[in-house]
Amino acid sequence: MANEEIMDEENIVVEFQDDAGNSLYYQQEMIIPVDGVDFALLVGLNVENDESFDEEENVIIAKIVKDENGEDEYVDPTDEEFEKVSAFFMERIEEAMEDCCDDDDCCCDDDCCCHHDEECDCCE
Question: What pTM was computed for the model?
């Protein structure tokens, strides 16, 4: 997994070369620390404006290691590391979903009507 890191003030974009030499770009969405090692959740960027591009299918987990110059390098995790990181991530997602809403504050019967950034409008 050869890569180049491109950074601006808020985003880290990682460029990978596929087997055919094509550039693939991924944005780092989050760092997931597991067993003292950092892993990155990377989401593919549709730089070619391809209508068939599916962001959900273009998510990868990469292990972050330091190269000989002390720079971050993104490499494939082992199968065991991938399983640990995936399990850790899914636990965090489940916890976030459990904590996101307090159904007692809403007048409807929806499991989640908080809309996360908006007021609940289901009782208006």
Answer: 0.67
